[in-house]
Specification:
The chain is α+β, with helices and mostly antiparallel strands. It has 16 helices and 20 strands.
Length: 489
Amino acid sequence: MSEPKRLHPVAVLLNILKSIKELVVPFVLVIVIPGRNEGIPGWVQPLAISVIVLFLIIHAFLQWLRFTYRMEDGEFRIESGVFVRKKRYIKLDRIHSIDISQGIIQRIFRLVKVNIETAGGTQADAVLSAIGKRDAGRINAFISTEKNKTAIDVPEMEKDRHSRHEGAVEASSVYKQTLPQLVAMAATSGAVGVFLSGAIAFISQFDEIIPFDRIFKNYEAFIGMGTIILTAFAIVGLLAVYVLATVSMVMKYASFTVMKTGEELIISRGLLEKRQLTIPIHKIQGIRVIENLVRKPLGFATVYLEYAGGSVEDKESLTIMLFPFIKKKLLQAKLGEMLPAYQTISEMTPIPKRALSRYVFRKAVFIIPIIGVLSWFFKPWGFLSLILFPLGIFWAYMEYKDAAWNIDGDLLLLSHRLFSKQTLIMQRSRIQAICYKRSWFQSRKGLATISASIKSGVHARIGLVMDVEEEDCRTIESWYLPKKTVDSR
């Protein structure tokens, strides 16, 4: 594959759309708000728009024409640049992951997009926005072969039901998320909050264009009909947002499949936009288990991979789901199939009972001033804020119950709760640092705080447990330090 190749011509269209997205604000100012350019002849605006569009088309075509890629001498080589020629050489053995996705435009033309990443950064190291499925499969297989020095067949992007498969992959373990499980996952994900806040933020950007005052004035009579009708409409609106958020999550993670092939995990998902991510197992830094308020009582959890890859430009590459919705009692068995190095069956060690007062104290210090301010300035309704105190005490108790740690061979497990319970499973060789500290208040009770960090994307993922028995902190520290001492010699 040493001959330089160009992307599919559809890349020209994708480049145009990308440029329009980056210039959306100027386009809105020119097209959506034309009446504010007083004194300017009417022919100027159409001419400006035509010039901009023509420039975008020419620039997108030149980007496509000047972009070539090839694999040669153990390197992935890219040449690009319209005015300044850029050459980028990526060592194949330094590639962390290969992300193959398929947006709506790519699906129409039976193409895929390939992101090649070496380590966490602001963007992917190489992006092939439009290439054929066979070419993507060859690139994936060639890189895997060069890295592992053995022939490894890697599957292409999952085809449509009526498409003919080009080849098969022998997977040692497969995990598939069923449709009922996806619906349950989406319904309990809390995505409705993100969906609703995003909609409000989007609408708020157009407060100068949308005549909100006139709209509300026309509906004053309707609003005067009473709180019952308004409450009913508010409930219906929230239900509609909830359903939309649930459906969007189901579509995003439809056909979710994890396959283990040799020393790689291949994760694929998506209905409208299909994505396939290939992750070398030796690049995985840890496992994160999340149990939110709804899933924990039901015995379900979501499991994420922590790995040294991804980019800020593509935020989804920073949070890789391994199991979107799995029974907690089945988790360790499935980890034993996919990632046996992270399988653990021992019980967690809870923090001592005397730590409970510390959790309650921290919540009280935070909540009592809020109650005082609300009660003083918003009488008499401000007294309703008193309900925050028992809620805060209950939340402090939940944080105390979920705080725990464990050492199982070369694994360290740290568990805590903020809003959801998080358990971070880390291998000793992957831990970058362990921090053991105590405040004056903690030292009076023989307690301390233990934390451990691992590489995750462009940042570090930190596991933290507060108010651990001080002797237990020393045990964790002594478990970690000898290994680091040996490695440093």
